[in-house]
Amino acid sequence: MTRVLLTGFAPFEGESLNPSWQAVRAAAAEPPAGIEASAIELPCVYGASIAVLRAAIEEVRPEIVVCVGQAGGRPDITVERLAVNVDDARIPDASGAEPIDEAIVPGGPAAYFSTLPIKACVAAVRAAGLPASVSNTAGTFVCNHVFYGLAHLIATELPGVRGGFVHVPYTPEQVVDRSQPSLPSEAVTRALHEIALTSARTRTDIRVAGGATH
Amino acid sequence: MTRVLLTGFAPFEGESLNPSWQAVRAAAAEPPAGIEASAIELPCVYGASIAVLRAAIEEVRPEIVVCVGQAGGRPDITVERLAVNVDDARIPDASGAEPIDEAIVPGGPAAYFSTLPIKACVAAVRAAGLPASVSNTAGTFVCNHVFYGLAHLIATELPGVRGGFVHVPYTPEQVVDRSQPSLPSEAVTRALHEIALTSARTRTDIRVAGGATH
Amino acid sequence: MTRVLLTGFAPFEGESLNPSWQAVRAAAAEPPAGIEASAIELPCVYGASIAVLRAAIEEVRPEIVVCVGQAGGRPDITVERLAVNVDDARIPDASGAEPIDEAIVPGGPAAYFSTLPIKACVAAVRAAGLPASVSNTAGTFVCNHVFYGLAHLIATELPGVRGGFVHVPYTPEQVVDRSQPSLPSEAVTRALHEIALTSARTRTDIRVAGGATH
Amino acid sequence: MTRVLLTGFAPFEGESLNPSWQAVRAAAAEPPAGIEASAIELPCVYGASIAVLRAAIEEVRPEIVVCVGQAGGRPDITVERLAVNVDDARIPDASGAEPIDEAIVPGGPAAYFSTLPIKACVAAVRAAGLPASVSNTAGTFVCNHVFYGLAHLIATELPGVRGGFVHVPYTPEQVVDRSQPSLPSEAVTRALHEIALTSARTRTDIRVAGGATH
């Protein structure tokens, strides 16, 4: 058994749901064989989100942490490569905070790579018939904030843990009148199962191209 | 009971499946209460597609005809407003034909409006939690060709029949590595049920805005 | 000399300028050799726009009419193929009118084809180093309204006149902070010169593919 | 006088020109007052591109280095925030190399921030009437490779130099038949002048939001 902690976010920017939490809750409720899954919902708030994540990690003691967030407008499941040490967003977080170009961890490295096998995760999701790709930016809002916080925690205090971030599209319900790409929650749940299983099984990532020219 | 004929297309442009036929077949196999559904697959060929459609209409004697095709790249179910009297495509059809600016029916009107209640259909699909919108162009390839052929048949020979065209997105399986929008076949099947039911029940379309500035 | 009437629109939807009028005014101020050009600005209002167009045509007595409008979000110069007999938009016009699914000309045909050589115009703009394509929908707002009004006037009263519609992108000034495609006004002006010249010279359109699969 | 080194790239991926080199050459040929500009063309080759850049820096001894590359598909001038320590692309470079997930500098930090005032540069380009934004990923191809190489050189050997990377759209000539966004070379040249001037004048970046939710 591999202990996996999955995190999703509370809704933000006027949405009534957040597809990340929907899928995370469902994925943890019926985990695949060999996975012992826990799910927590993080507030869409700088600072507090990392505090809640840290508390959950201390309680659950996971071997793998997969944080999940909504990337409205992206058509596929995107496995993030890099967390960057900056908060800077075009909208306020759920507490009203609007930091500009502030370090998440003052003095911390500019960025951390995901410690999940991102290429293997993408390949597994695709093999399950769902669209996926590597993303080279998780943005500079609370998703990236949590991702950087997790990576810093792993790098400085939890060497045995591996973790990363996955962005998921809108659900169809969110965009019935918006002409935006979407994937049903069931599909995202299946993708998270593939990512959890693949992360549990894969120590060294596979070598397949997954980059971008820009 | 309302007799509804659903049509989908065979795959084209190198795809191994066509989501329109997948969804049409499934929608006809388990139709909603009150609908007697038939499904046929049309060849992706100018001319022959209309001939096969005409033969199916003569056999099935439907009250409503909903032709369905793939619109790769669109994120939602699009109910087409207008069929235009021209064949002109950037790719050959499945028989290799590449007509340029040729009339589908020489001497026919420049265009026909759909005789389905397109706004009511869009509203019904949205109410079912799926993304939908009106489209003002079905292109100038075989989808539009069949749509125009159907509309001309209705206008000139089958005044009691109503019919139109619906474009559907890629399925996730088609775009696992392409970063294109998609909807699972089950979702499209549900949307087709809503469109069949709504078309059966609605004689006069509802008045809600559904246009585009360009 | 060929007499060409160019029309642009007043700004709408909160914009401070309309790139169509900017380019039309400049194109008429220094027309290419062989072209005698007039420019008028049409109000972005259903009904009134056609009335102003009709008055200008009666005064100028053009051989060719090229109406131009803004298509925010499109990256290239698009030469419209088809005007459709319906008003239906997601936003009100400049007078506050919001018609839904109303015929522009009650009893008029569903659509008219452009009587400009659209493929030759696209080819000429491309040969001048600027991006262009055929569009199969001019929308269902005031642009399409004017296009249909012009086409109906030509079909019913002015058989010697040829005319059509061209959509142009935002200018860079309009989208400095919006990550939307744009083309400078000078480039659009050059494109309009090519379209005027090509329309004056070309009676029978060239045969090159320019359609869309959907 | 501030000495500024501008670099552009040779064409790649079958293009006959690279808009970055066009604009860089023009920008250096007639620099704005107060700027002494040099321009070099870098090969689109991992490794060699950094070697050519280093040699040019040693020769020119610039105070500011602005590397420029093509970002086909982006509609605006994008000032890059972050260089990442990885080579991983979907296409081979001009020498045929296709590294996968290889460190640019083994043992180097995961990423470097640009040392240009990126927010001030974006603001200056916008004030000049041209579209611009901050980008949070320069990709993982040769553009990012050069950007990381430059940042590493500055961090480890050239503390007095400041430098960064700017991505520019296609030019209209490149996309006449592709329906992709573009900006004329003259516009990009003006943007590069603004970026050079702003970088020369601005030691501490301005505080304005410029991030992304994902």
From TrEMBL, chains A, B, C, D:
Its Enzyme Commission number(s) read 3.4.19.3
Q: Which residues form the active site?
A: E80, C143, H167
Where does the UniProt annotation locate this protein? Cytoplasm
Provide the alphabetized UniProt keywords. Answer: Cytoplasm, Hydrolase, Protease, Thiol protease
For this protein, the record's PROSITE patterns field holds: PYRASE_CYS (PS01334), PYRASE_GLU (PS01333)
- Swiss-Prot/TrEMBL catalytic activity: Release of an N-terminal pyroglutamyl group from a polypeptide, the second amino acid generally not being Pro
Q: Which GO terms describe its molecular function?
A: pyroglutamyl-peptidase activity
- Supply the InterPro entries for this chain: Peptidase_C15, Peptidase_C15-like, Peptidase_C15-like_sf, PGP-I_bact-type, PGPEP1_Cys_AS, PGPEP1_Glu_AS
Q: What family does the entry list?
A: Belongs to the peptidase C15 family.
* Descriptive protein name: Pyrrolidone-carboxylate peptidase
**Which gene carries the instructions for this protein?**
pcp
